[in-house]
Amino acid sequence: MASSYAVIENLQEPLQSTKQGVQKESSSSPRWSICKVPENIRNFNEDAYSPHIICIGPFHSSNQKLETMEAHKRLYMNSFLERINETQETMRVCPEAHDCYRGSNYDENSLSERLLLDGCFIVELFLRQQRLVHPTDEDKIIKNPSMIPLLQRDLLLLENQIPFCVLKQLYSRYRVMEKYHIEPDSLFSLPQLALTFFKSSILPYVNPRALGRNYNADIMHLLDLVHKCYEASIKPPRSGCSEDYIKRATQLADAGIQFKPHTSKNIFNIEFMNAVLKIPQLRVDDMTEPLFRNLIALEQCCSERRQLVTSYAALMDRLIDTPQDVEFLEDRSIIRNDLGCSKDVADLFNNLCKGVIQTEDIFSELSAKVNHYCSQLWIKIRATLKRKFFREYFPNPVQFAAFTIAIVALLFTILQTVYTITTYYYTR
Question: What is residue 351's predicted lDDT score, i.e. its pLDDT?
Fold first, then answer.
């Protein structure tokens, strides 16, 4: 590998090569940062924040277990640079790349090399997966479908990111070189292309084309892009974090609240009206925990970020306390359990917010409505009777059936006794 890869001369300006002239470098520091997961969160599940097959960026570059993918990354990089008619030596090295990483002290040249290697790999991966570029015969990634879910997971880890501007400018060079050789409808914007890559197993309810081709949001990195899609999908009013917590699902059902799946696929569209709580279905699989944990970590690291995922995870934690709550929500098509075990789903939500500081709850108004309904006297009496009568005295249907038969038999006995006594006095 050459000592210096092609990179962006300035992360806030278009790509430049020595063949095109050198642009004036910006003196301002980058406005984004990529940071490590806080230890108070990481300690609850380190695996959820660590890459399994590929290293992106400098944080996990010393992990020997991830070396296998480095050769594939170089193949992708060489293919991409050849396509845009550049070489490793014809591009300028960004002098401020290390400033993108909070608290970093990396060698500038080494970090620049890694930025280009990883940036070219990611853009080339998106292009090949969408078939805007045909995979080569030696491509062991696209031709192995089982690799894609693993890459989706690792590319959305907070500690496994590179600045989105690097990807954006690399993709711009590709568009300049290739726009006359592919169909116009296939000319995705980079955010659309990225979301299309993740859509199949992680974001089934996000429509990449809904962002528009001129999506100009200030995106920091791929995980930030996903979070911005959440923000764009629903805009609830900003609210403080109240302590108006709701009870778990089975207790709310005892109080007479019905649970129904929402027709919306957006997980934040939760509604309560006329004693009916409508919740969009959530598929819980191996991707759920690392995705949610890293989005929550992003919200914790950026104080100006809305705590959407934190609010959702906290609400689900309150609704789900036991495996019985999971099974209850499964029966109503609110949870699709692809983990298999109800206890695993309960444990997932019970642990997601441990160590997390919640400063905003977008569902505080919803919780207040639910609690107000449950606080009505007749609702409380009905819930108490239902809980005592059915849950404690008759925990299974057989016991309840036996009790019902006994009551019916007793009524018949009383009626027969009354009839016998009445007949006796009338016939005297």
Answer: 96
- Which tokens is 39 given? 């230890």
Q: What integer is the mean pLDDT of 379-386?
A: 57
- Given CA atoms 190, 192, 194, 197 in this order, what sign does their dihedral have? negative
How would you class 349 by CB atoms within 10 Å of its CB: exposed for 0-12, middle for 13-18, buried for 19 or more?
A: buried
The C-alpha atoms of residue 47 and residue 40 are separated, in whole angstroms, by 14
Cα–Cα distance, 379 to 254 (Å, whole number): 9
Please tell me which of 20-24, 39-43, 234-238, 387-391 the model is most confident about, judged by mean pLDDT.
Answer: 39-43
Neighbours of 51 (CB within 10 A): 23
Helix axes 308-319, 222-233, angle to 10 degrees: 70
Please report the pLDDT score of residue 305 as a whole number. 84
At 6, give phi and psi (nearest 5°). Answer: -70, 130
pLDDT of residue 25 exceeding 80, the answer is no
What is the rounded average pLDDT of the residues 135-142? 86
- For the chain, give every domain's residue range: 39-233, 249-378, 398-428
The model's pTM: 0.82
What average pLDDT does range 114-118 have in this prediction?
Answer: 92
Dihedrals phi, psi of 48, to nearest 5 degrees: -70, -15
* Residue 85 host element (H or E): none
Contacts of 34 (CB under 8 A, 6+ apart): 57, 100, 101, 102, 158, 159, 161, 162, 163, 220, 221
Residue 322 has pLDDT above 70, yes or no: yes
Per DSSP (E only), the strands in 236-389 are 258-262, 271-273, 276-280, 282-284, 335-337
> Cα–Cα distance between 326 and 320 in angstroms, integer?
6
Tokens of residue 89, six digits: 């030596």
> What residue type is assigned to position 114 of the chain?
R
Bridge partners of 276?
A: 258, 273
pLDDT in tens, 84-109: 888 766 765 456 666 788 666 777 78
